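Sat 14:20. Reprocessing the chain from the morning session after the first attempt stalled halfway. Input below, unchanged.
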Amino acid sequence: MEQTTISITGMSCGGCVNSVRRALASIAGVTDANVKVGSAAVTYDPEATNPAALRHAIVQAGFAVAAG
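Finished this time. Tokens:
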């Protein structure tokens, strides 16, 4: 397992947190997503997914991923 932390912009409330958590949890290979306003720490199986796919899911959920 690997872990990455992704900075997220456009989040302002618990509903945003839940939206991002659901988006990440729907990805095969994600074993844990600790989401708070502004970031997500994600544990994932690198054989099943990758950080680019995680960032894409966040964008698809309606939020922006901060550069970095």
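Residues 2-65 form a domain with the Alpha-Beta Plaits fold (CATH 3.30.70.100).
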